[in-house]
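This protein record is not my work; I was only asked to verify it. Would you go through it and say whether the fold makes sense for this chain? Here is the record exactly as it was handed to me.
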Amino acid sequence: MSKLNNLQKHSVIVADSGEIEEIKKYHPTDATTNPSLILAASEKPEYRPLVDDAIAYGRTMGGSASEQMENILTKVFVNFGVEILKHVPGRVSTEVDARLSFDIEGSLKKAHQYIDLYKQAGIPKERILVKLASTWEGVQAAKQLESEGIHCNMTLMFSLAQAIACAEVNATLISPFVGRILDWYKKAEGRESYPGPEDPGVLSVTEIYHYYKKFDHKTQIMGASFRNADEILELAGCDLITIAPKLLGELEKMEGDVPVKLTPEAAKASPIEKLAIDEKAFRWHLNENPMATEKLAEGIRKFAADTVKLEKVLGTL
């Protein structure tokens, strides 16, 4: 049996892709998207009907050129999500514009637009995860949305303080970025690689997992942004793991058992102290973590830049 199949015994597998053909190939439970993935997929001819429909929708809605583009962009994200949901039994994550990462009201408005468009397509809100950046403002938007029964996936997650803040507002899901944490430490420490159990991204997710299970937080943890298969296998037992098609293919070709690495029992036995995270503590802990500070800012910039690129592509069609 492949390691991918054995991994599925311990964790829910989620496809990290905007490409429907890749999702169909690996039969994941859920799927996640982001502006970078949608940008890559939207430039492929087979997805042109999804893009054309969004452009027609935006023009029909009218308004200024910028308002039309905002509506086109929103509809593109939803169109990809609707198509993906035809091929997964669970949920799809749709990301709020990264340029709204520090805008609570703007994030709420965009989330409601997504949910309304999905509803018009016959998709109930229970199958949607609204992705928000794990800024303080993103956390506050998630608090409001979760109170309305709209589920949130907190992305660009690099630290325990972010994770605790998200859990305390009952966010449905968090997505710690394993590979990007590894990237930072390799550069900062001048190392080519780390053994799997010592991988800084793996250690970060393990710390969050132990904290959540120790203190009975209901928010689920989905390891994300992997650089290699070893990182994924070291997190067997994590609630969910979202994996890019390339690494799904590698795991499918690997044979052998996959021992569970994360368990609630080990978490309960961990000597962890509970932290109180209000806004001041959140900002202080984030400030004291240079990796998390830098990677959060960089991630927001990159997703925002890819959103602008996507707008330019849509503007030429």
User: Anything to note?
Assistant: The longest strand covers residues 128-133. The chain has a mean pLDDT of 96. The chain has one domain: 3-315. DSSP finds 15 helices and eight strands in the chain.
